[in-house]
Amino acid sequence: MSTKIILLVEDNPDDEELTLRALKKNNIRNEIVVARDGLEAIEYLEGTGKYAGRDPKALPQVILLDLKLPKMDGLAVLRKIRSNVKTRLLPVVILTSSKEEQDLIQGYDLGANSYIRKPVDFNEFTEAVRNLGLYWLVLNETPPS
User: Fold this and answer.
1) Number of structural domains found in the chain
2) 145 occurs within a structural domain
3) What pTM was computed for the model?
4) 6 by DSSP, 3-state: which?
5) CA 55 to chain centre
6) pLDDT for 18-44, tens place per residue?
7) Residue 112 domain flag
């Protein structure tokens, strides 16, 4: 199998940088593709738009999905992922600063595998990313594609 790709869907450059730094600090060296809005995430998964020509069978090992995104919000992205037979089984971790209980409920209702609130403290965030990486990239068994 090829490299285990992480799809990071994040529009905030500071949160993107923080996530990438936390992954690097924890020696998570997987290829990371960053989509900066919901539509770009769907284009990546389907191999369309700016990702036309990308092999859509090469799916990420895990998707780290923010909720508050331009063009298409995270819950709409999750709904689209779960409605597509090719992507519906992909592990999706909602990684958000939202404290809205409704987002949490709706995220799980739409099929999120996990919901993590971004800690404000960098050390706490780094530890959360370390655990996330260990679980989703090493321990978790994904269904065959």
Assistant:
1) 1
2) no
3) 0.90
4) strand
5) 19
6) 888 888 888 888 899 999 999 999 999
7) yes
Q: Does an H or E element contain 123, and which?
A: helix 122-133
Instruction: Check residue 135 and report its DSSP letter.
Output: I
The answer to whether 46 touches 38, Cβ cutoff 8 Å, is: no
Tokens at 138, concatenated? 């090493």
Q: For residue 50, give its domain range.
A: 6-139
Spell out the residues 6+ positions from residue 55 whose beta carbon is closer than 8 angstroms to its own. Answer: 47
CA distance 112 to 48: 23
- For residue 63, the domain's CATH number is 3.40.50.2300
Residue 89 inside a domain? The answer is yes
| The token pair that represents 59 in the structure block | 């799916």
**DSSP conformation class of 48:** -
Could you read off the pLDDT of 132-142 as tens digits, one per residue? 887 887 777 77
